[in-house]
């Protein structure tokens, strides 16, 4: 008993001593904990500041992207070159890797063209509804950040743009923030994705070789309360936190904060030696004060310990007994809980298996047979099959995969589908295909019980090996005959509808061509005879008045034909708008000259108000603008009674981005229109009052054509009218500004508005850029993407006696280079047209060959407006100085021509017109007679042949082809000129292919005919 008390006293003494040491150690530890808490606060502040900087930068990029998208203009979207130029500018302004757009089909539009690698980006362009920040899906050190925003369905080049995004280099994002990644530094900062991927090049300041933070921390020893799973959990829920661990023998502390607007975490890593050095003095003071407090507290506690020893001894025994009882109860309780949990787990597993079985059965209802296939062992188990097919195995039976499936193909699949089916079910194909897609399928036709049906086989991965290779797949066969036949029927319906629409459009074109020919043919006779009659001597004033009215009516009828053709061109999209420099004063003078005279004759007051802020020149299609103004002013004059007023005003509303918006307003005090009729005003053949046509004369097409032209020029036309008081039309057009003014002085002025240029380049981007530069300078420009196409276009224009002023050729093109193209063009045009070759290479080696081929000069790519205009002026000056004095015209007097014309009246008119220049003419009533007359004539007897196109027995094309095939020297070289009412480009093309040299549309103007003959003889 004594020994027991001594033992207890001894134990109490040791306990007190231990308690003293624990207390002292505790106060020392409190000092260090205080230091650690201050360090943690310091780390938190540093991490938060860097996070705020990164968040601010990302917010700026989102705002910049919104700003860039909102400032897209219709002009930026009007062409590929404008769109790519806008992207290129924004890309360099913000220092981006890429500034791009995504359309509704997943095609990416960048400043370098289109891309189809949308799978490299995390955002879903189909469902994106707010700004999203992510990393691009590429491996390696060169990481880029993607900032994507949804856009409100911009339309570009027939596609709908739904997403815009920036691609930013990570180093660009982190400019201005200190992220120390030196392996010798004690402090480092980094940014990771929520799954631990580093945005920078090193993990944990470079002391870890892994590329993933979580993988690197698997090798670390964490202090109590910290673990990799804790950090992983915090990262997944975007939660701020910290952890202390030892890695490679170095004790480190990491603090991490979420980066707002992203799923990233910013970490701040500090090694303990930093705090031991930076906070040594501070920590020593805290420890000393804690030691003094510890001694005082220790003195008090010793007294308390002495008083508590007796009570402790008494309680110890009771406590021990209670603990034994409690331990026994806990063991029993734990065993009972484990048994209950195991039972619940087994019940839950059974329930899940039942649900999975029900779900699999429900999903497999779509399939007539379902298989479990092991690709490595070439075995298969059938879990479902139809009962009406003669298949030699049962459900649940293990069967050889390849043998059974290939036998099925030979027995039931049609021969033309067997090879494709067998290739599809090969294990190597299955593994390769399922790597790319989660579900693969193949359709084929099979025959069962004498009936052909469409079927489909589908496969999906069921199990993979540890190395990721596919081992087991699920295979299902389904009958898709009904839906396939329905789909094929719908497709055939669409094909038939398309064919009907194409035939209707073709029929419409043929009808318009025939109508134009049939009406122009008698019109040619009317206008021709009227012109001849007016030139007869001794015509009485009364007869002259009648003849002039006949001519006026004929011209009106011809204008109606032209309006119908214009309407057809607008509806079919064949009418084009040309951007050409024009004089504002000259255009207004032409319009005012027409309507001053008309208003004076009808007793109307004509007022023209021109704002003083108009520029001297603009760039646009002045011919179409004049057509619009003449149509509207013509209606104002037509529907305004005597004594009324017609007012025409023009002003500049605004100027922006080298463009001006002009407002044309035409007001009259005429009969006006009701408000109910105004919505139908611009419909073809629309008339408010049927008697209007009888009283005033109108085709009902003028305003429809006007509206079509204004819409093509991206303009706007508005109308206000009141019955009995008058009408006001307002046309708003935006035109390009011209740098030219009437004050410009030069030795030789080149009228760019009168020029027509052809640009030839097989690089579509370069071709469109050249076209854009020239059109911005007011030059009408057409394009061709090969030398062969350019030669054909030159022939077509030459046949119409309307050659190009300038041809710009790329030097190095496929099939036919620029020099050869120039040589062939010169063979058609002679030396009339200027030819410039564009190149990015040194042209010294081919200079002599190019000049000999007819090239006027070379210009280095890329084209700049000033360079091209200066060079054009120099070339045209040389052309005018060199060609104008020496150009000669053939003498027409005494020439002998052969005229093929089936209409006697038209033939008589043409013979009389040719007599005006002392030209002798032989008449053939059709193409066959013309062929016989030419064949029987001596070689060189006829100087030229005038050939009508539509004639009985043999038309003009057949006759021309036959003449060209004759075995006589002049058959290949005699000029043959088409005189026809066929006014479409397709008709001209057929004429050239048949061997005609020129194409003149009826009614033929004598001056045009004589000029054509002078140029060809």
What's the number of extended β-strand segments? 34
Distance between the amino and carboxyl termini: 150 Å
Please state the CA-atom Rg, rounded to the nearest Å: 46 Å
Structural category is alpha+beta
What's the story with the biggest beta sheet? Answer: 7 strands, mixed
**Tally of individual helices:** 26
**Beta-strand fraction estimate:** 15-25%
Short description:
It is built from 26 helices and 34 strands. The protein is α+β, with helices and mostly antiparallel strands.
Structure in words:
- The protein has 26 helices and 34 strands.
- Strands 18, 19, 20, 21, 22, 23 and 24 form a seven-stranded mixed β-sheet that branches.
- The longest helix is centred in the N-terminal third of the chain and has 84 residues, at 280-363.
- The chain is elongated and about 155 Å long.
- 26% of the residues are buried.
Write the layout of secondary structure elements.
Layout: H1 2-70, H2 80-93, E1 98-103, E2 108-110, E3 113-115, E4 132-135, E5 144-156, E6 159-169, H3 170-173, E7 187-192, H4 213-217, E8 221-222, H5 228-236, E9 241-247, E10 250-258, E11 265-271, H6 272-278, H7 280-363, E12 369-374, E13 379-384, E14 398-400, H8 401-412, H9 415-424, H10 427-436, E15 439-448, E16 451-464, E17 470-479, H11 481-534, H12 541-572, E18 580-583, H13 584-602, E19 605-610, E20 617-620, H14 622-638, E21 645-656, E22 659-668, H15 691-696, H16 702-712, E23 716-722, E24 726-737, E25 756-760, H17 764-776, E26 780-784, H18 787-799, E27 806-810, H19 818-829, E28 834-839, H20 847-853, E29 857-860, H21 865-883, E30 896-900, H22 904-915, E31 920-924, H23 927-936, E32 944-948, H24 956-964, E33 976-980, H25 985-994, E34 998-1001, H26 1006-1016
Helix pairs in contact: 1-7, 8-9, 11-12, 11-22, 12-16, 13-14, 14-16, 18-19, 19-20, 23-24
């Amino acid at each position: 008993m004594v020994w027991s008390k001594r033992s207890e006293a001894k134990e109490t003494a040791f306990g007190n001593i231990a308690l003293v040491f624990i207390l002292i150690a505790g106060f020392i530890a409190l000092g260090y904990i205080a230091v650690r808490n201050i360090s943690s606060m310091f780390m938190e502040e540093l991490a938060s500041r860097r996070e705020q900087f990164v968040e601010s930068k990302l917010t700026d990029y989102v705002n910049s992207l919104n700003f860039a998208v909102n400032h897209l203009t219709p002009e930026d979207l009007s062409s590929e070159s404008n769109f790519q130029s806008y992207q290129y500018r924004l890309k360099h302004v913000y220092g981006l890797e890429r500034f791009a757009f995504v359309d509704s089909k997943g095609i990416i539009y960048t400043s370098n063209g289109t891309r189809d690698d949308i799978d490299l980006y995390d955002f879903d362009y189909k469902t994106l509804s707010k700004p999203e920040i992510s990393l691009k899906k590429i491996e390696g050190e060169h990481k880029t950040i993607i900032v994507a925003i949804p856009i409100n369905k911009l339309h570009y080049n027939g596609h709908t743009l739904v997403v815009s995004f920036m691609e930013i280099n990570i180093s660009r994002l982190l400019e201005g923030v200190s992220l120390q990644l030196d392996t010798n530094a004690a402090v480092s900062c980094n940014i990771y994705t929520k799954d631990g991927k580093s945005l920078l090049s090193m993990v944990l300041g470079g002391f870890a070789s892994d590329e993933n933070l979580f993988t690197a921390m698997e090798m670390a020893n964490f202090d109590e309360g910290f673990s990799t799973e804790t950090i992983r959990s915090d990262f997944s829920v975007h939660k701020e936190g910290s952890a202390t661990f030892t890695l490679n023998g170095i004790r480190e502390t990491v603090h991490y904060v979420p980066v707002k607007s992203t799923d990233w975490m910013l970490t701040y890593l500090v090694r303990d030696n930093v705090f031991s050095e930076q906070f040594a003095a501070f920590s020593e003071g805290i420890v000393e004060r804690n030691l003094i407090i510890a001694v005082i507290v220790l003195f008090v506690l010793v007294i308390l310990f002495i008083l508590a020893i007796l009570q402790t001894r008494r309680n110890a025994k009771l406590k021990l007994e209670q603990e034994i009882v409690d331990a026994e109860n806990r063991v029993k309780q734990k065993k009972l809980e484990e048994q209950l949990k195991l039972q619940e787990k087994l019940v839950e597993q059974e329930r899940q298996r039942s649900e999975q079985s029900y779900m699999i059965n429900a999903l497999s209802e779509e399939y007539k047979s379902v298989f479990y296939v092991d690709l490595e062992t070439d075995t298969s188990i059938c879990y479902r099959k139809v009962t009406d097919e003669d298949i030699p195995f049962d459900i649940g039976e293990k069967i050889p995969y390849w043998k059974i499936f290939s036998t099925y193909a030979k027995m039931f699949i049609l021969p033309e589908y067997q090879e494709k089916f067998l290739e599809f079910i090969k294990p190597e194909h299955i593994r390769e295909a399922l790597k790319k897609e989660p579900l693969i399928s193949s359709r084929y036709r099979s025959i069962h019980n004498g009936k052909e049906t469409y079927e489909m086989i589908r496969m999906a991965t069921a199990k993979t090996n540890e190395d990721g290779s596919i081992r087991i797949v699920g295979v299902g066969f389904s009958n898709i005959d009904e839906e396939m036949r329905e789909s094929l029927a719908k497709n055939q319906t669409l094909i038939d509808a398309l064919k009907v629409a194409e035939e209707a459009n073709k029929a419409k074109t043929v009808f318009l061509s025939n109508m134009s020919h049939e009406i122009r043919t008698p019109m040619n006779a009317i206008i021709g005879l009227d012109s001849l009659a007016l030139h007869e001597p001794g015509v009485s004033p009364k007869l002259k008045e009648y003849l002039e009215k006949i001519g006026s009516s004929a011209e009106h009828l011809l204008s109606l034909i032209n309006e119908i053709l214009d309407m057809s061109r607008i509806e079919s999209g064949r009418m084009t708008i040309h951007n050409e420099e024009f004089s504002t004063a000259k255009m207004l003078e032409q319009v005012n000259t027409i309507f001053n005279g008309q208003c004076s004759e009808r007793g109307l007051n004509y007022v023209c108000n021109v704002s003083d802020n108009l520029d001297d020149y603009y760039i646009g299609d002045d011919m179409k603008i004049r057509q619009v103004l003449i149509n509207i002013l013509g209606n104002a004059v037509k529907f305004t009674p005597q004594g009324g007023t017609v007012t025409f005003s023009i002003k500049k509303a605004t100027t922006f981005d080298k463009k001006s918006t002009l407002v044309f307003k035409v007001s009259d005090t005429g009969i006006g229109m009701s408000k109910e009729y105004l919505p139908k005003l611009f419909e073809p053949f629309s008339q408010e009052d049927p008697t209007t046509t009888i009283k005033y004369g109108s085709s009902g097409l003028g305003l429809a054509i006007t509206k079509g032209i204004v819409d093509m020029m991206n303009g706007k036309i508005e109308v206000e009218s009141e019955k009995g008081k008058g009408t006001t039309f307002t046309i708003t057009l935006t035109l390009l500004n011209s740098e030219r003014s009437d004050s410009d002085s030069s030795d030789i002025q080149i009228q760019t508005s009168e020029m027509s240029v052809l640009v030839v380049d097989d690089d579509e981007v370069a071709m469109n850029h050249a076209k854009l530069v020239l059109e911005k300078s007011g030059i009408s420009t057409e394009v061709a993407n090969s030398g062969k196409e350019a030669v054909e276009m030159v022939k077509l224009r030459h046949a119409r006696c309307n050659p190009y002023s300038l041809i710009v050729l790329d030097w190095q093109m496929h099939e036919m280079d620029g020099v050869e193209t120039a040589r062939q063009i010169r063979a058609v045009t002679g030396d009339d047209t200027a030819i410039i070759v564009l190149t990015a290479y040194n042209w010294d080696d081919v200079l002599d060959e190019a000049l000999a081929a007819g090239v006027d000069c070379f210009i280095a790519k890329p084209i700049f407006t000033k360079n091209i205009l200066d060079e054009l002026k120099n070339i045209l000056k040389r052309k005018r100085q060199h060609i104008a004095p020496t150009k000669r015209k053939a003498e027409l007097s005494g020439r002998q021509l052969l005229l093929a014309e089936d209409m006697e009246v038209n033939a008589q008119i043409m013979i009389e017109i040719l007599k005006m220049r002392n030209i002798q003419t032989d008449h053939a009533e059709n193409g066959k007679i013309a062929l016989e007359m030419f064949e029987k004539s001596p070689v060189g007897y006829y100087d030229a042949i005038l050939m009508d196109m539509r004639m009985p027995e043999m038309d003009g094309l057949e006759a021309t082809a036959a003449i060209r095939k004759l075995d006589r020297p002049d058959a290949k070289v005699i000029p043959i000129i088409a005189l026809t009412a066929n006014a479409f480009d397709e008709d001209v093309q057929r004429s050239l292919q048949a061997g005609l040299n020129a194409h003149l549309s009826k009614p033929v103007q004598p001056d045009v005919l004589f000029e054509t003959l002078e140029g060809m003889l």
